Amino acid sequence: MASSREFVNYVREQLSGRDDVVIRPMMGEYLVYWGGKVGGDICDNRLLVKPVPSALRLLPDASLEPPYPGAKDMILVEDLEDRPFLTSLMDAMEPELPARKKRTPKKKPA
């Protein structure tokens, strides 16, 4: 089940505590970036974040779920109502998120 536009807009609003949050469509669902790094996914009307140490510490009782079959587990963020918490979660996670990989240009055929 794909995420609804209403849910994506709701998550965008709830994450508006930071100016740098970007939500981009990717393969039928959405990637969530902040600080120029991928920190989470929106899949099946769920917000999932990467299981970095700070997120595991701040969400100790959260369930780990894959965003789609065969994917690595991510942390399900169930309480989307607490905007200050979501902002502090993103702030804590940012230094632990991997930097975006630079794309290698494709070689031109000879």
Automatic annotation (TrEMBL):
It comes from the Bacteria. This is Competence protein TfoX. It comes from Faecalibaculum rodentium. The lineage of its organism: Bacteria, Bacillati, Bacillota, Erysipelotrichia, Erysipelotrichales.
